[in-house]
Amino acid sequence: MDATAASLADGVARGDRRSIARLISLAENDDPIGAEALRILHPRAGKAHVIGITGSPGTGKSTLTDRLIEAARRRGKTVGVVAVDPSSPYTGGAILGDRIRMQSRSTDPAVFIRSMGTRGALGGLSSHTADAVKVLEAAGKDLVFVETVGVGQAEVDVVRLADTVVVVLVPNLGDDVQAVKAGLMEIADLFVVNKGDLSGADKVAADVEANLMLAHPPAAPDGGVPWSPPILRTIAERGEGVVAVLEAAARHRAWSETSGEWSRRRVRRVLDQVRALLERKVTLFAFEPDGTPRPAWKALLGDLVAGRLSPQDAAGRLLAAFKP
Predict the structure, then answer these.
(1) Domain span including residue 307
(2) 3-class DSSP state of 232
(3) 26, 44, 62 — which closes off a domain?
(4) Would 180 disulfide with which of 18, 184, 263, 287, CB 3.0-4.6 Å?
(5) Do 132 and 25 lie in a common domain?
(6) What is the C-alpha to C-alpha distance for residues 93 and 96, in angstroms, rounded to an integer?
(7) Within 10 Å of residue 150's Cβ, how many Cβ atoms?
(8) How many separate domains does the chain show?
(9) DSSP helix/strand/coil, 76
(10) 252 and 164 in contact (C-beta within 8 Å)?
């Protein structure tokens, strides 16, 4: 066992903020010390309630998350937040505006907020979001909020990570429900109509309810009573309705635990993490972290561009040569 990794893992387990921050950074950079520390901490993960906050751009996800942190702390809960911001396709940088909106919470020792850029990953999350969640779980956080980038119809990776998915909608974004129902409507455990004081909020809520009535709710894994997603109204900027969202998330957790959904989602999560690790390892065998081809790939590039080698053949040769 690497002594540095063991020391880092011990710091995370004690809730040391510097250790938490360092391990997340190492995980983002695919550092071997970070990987070893995550391996050590794995038995400590899996106890927090992971709540995904997702929705289209401009729905007020960051403001809602900020208010949810406040409500959770009033109940004595410790909180971790992973806020994902879009990265520039040119520089790879991210504005990380979510951290700015939640800045007032960062001085609370029971709250840890980490902003992450997508770094080109699709689906509304960073490729290392699951690692950051695992670190925060291992640090003993009661609740971990995962706020996605603004997403559309198909970018719904948060459902593979979160125990409870909150979909945030707002009035006056055009065809409010049609714009999201092909993806987000199907993954929501809770619907939140934010900015509920605006005209059109009633219509959004009514449209969501109509779509839910047309849909057949999935049966509970044990064949019991299915979960019917509640439709909640908030004005997050003023903190109105936020407590009801937190309480509904707690009810969803209770239902998940008794119905078997909690275990089913945890199984799916670990399988997805293994798949993601395999994809990352194979990708890093062929490419540098910045996307530059490694020697194994460069040797095939000339034949590939010249048409003497197909992409399928190139991928096959790389896989055959792959060494972890």
Answers:
(1) 273-321
(2) strand
(3) 44
(4) 184
(5) no
(6) 9
(7) 16
(8) 3
(9) coil
(10) yes
The answer to whether the beta carbons of residues 35 and 27 sit under 8 Å apart is yes
Tens digit of each residue's pLDDT (9 = 90 or more) over 165-208: 999 999 876 655 544 555 667 788 999 999 988 888 888 888 88
On whether both 242 and 279 belong to a single domain, the answer is no
Asked if 40 and 50 sit in the same domain, the reply is: no
Q: Which of 289, 288, 299 is nearest to 321 (CA)?
A: 299
Q: What is the pLDDT of residues 295-314, one digit of tens each?
A: 877 778 888 888 888 888 88
Same domain, 38 and 61: no
Strand order in the sheet with 143-147: 111-117, 79-85, 143-147, 49-55, 164-169, 190-193, 231-233
Q: What is the pLDDT of residues 136-160, one digit of tens each?
A: 999 999 999 999 876 654 456 788 8
pTM, entire model: 0.85
To the nearest 10°, the Cα dihedral for 271, 276, 277, 278? 90
Query: What pLDDT is attached to residue 280?
Result: 79
Residue type for 163, please? D
